[in-house]
Amino acid sequence: MARRMSRTAEKRHRKQTITTVINLLFLVLVGVGLVYWYIYREGPLDKVTMCPAEGPEGHVVLLVDKTDPLNFIQKEAFTTLLQELAGAGVEGVEPGYLVSVFALGEDYKATAKPIFEMCNPGSGQGKNELTANLKMLKRQFQEKFHGPMLKLADELQTANPGKTSPVFEMLQLASINSFRKHDIAGPKRLIIVSDMLQNTPEYSMYKGIEDFQSFRSSEYSKKLHVDFTGASVELHYIMNTPHLQTRKQLLFWEEYFKNANGRLSSVHLLEG
User: Fold this and answer.
1) Has this prediction a pTM greater than 0.85?
2) Would you say 233 and 190 are in contact if contact means Cβ atoms under 8 Å apart?
3) Are the C-beta atoms of 95 and 122 separated by less than 8 Å?
4) If one looks up domain 58-269 in CATH, what number appears?
5) Which of 59, 120, 206, 262 could make an SS bond with 231 (beta carbons 3.0 to 4.6 A apart)?
6) Rg (alpha carbons) of the chain, rounded to whole number
7) What's 178's DSSP letter?
8) With the C-alpha atoms ordered 12, 18, 23, 24, is the resulting torsion angle positive or negative?
């Protein structure tokens, strides 16, 4: 009788031990899951700008020259560039980066502010469904960033050529109203789509391309101080006047950005 009771107690003890071990394992798994969620969870975004709550992680400025109409092939190339920037692929803007878009118009005072300014909230690509609402992220990306960026294609083009092209003034305003205004600590990227031919009553490159040092010493230049400190500059060259858009003109702009503490990192010919 005593032996039978002893066996019953042993079974009860073994069962309790197994139950305790299972409960401990469950608690450990829950704890690990909570730690994983806390570390890899998505932080909140600003509802207006779609930027991280602690601020943008980088800044991309797109400056488009719309003082000259684009031909059919140039329009296609420009639309492709816009699609790449607005996309979620390798060529797209990094999630968490602020995008400021400026249109270089004939009247630079009327186009001094960005026509679009929003952070890329991220599409959810590469995220873990355990720590992120992938469906919500994709919808947010399409509605707040990708779609609105693509809608800019028409607004950034013109059907009629302008009488002037204030490239210097627009570069100065883009610097003031983007990099300087937001003063983001992360990477800075300036993308320019233009023929880079300044044409105003005060200064016109259609009369000839001088070297940058001569321009720098002029009274006109002194009014156009600009600061692109730390900015990487990408030029998408619209080749409308090849006899003026020579290596000499490109050297002028290389020196211009260097003098402004930036760097002309790449030059691409816009097809057409």
Assistant:
1) no
2) yes
3) yes
4) 3.40.50
5) 262
6) 28
7) I
8) positive
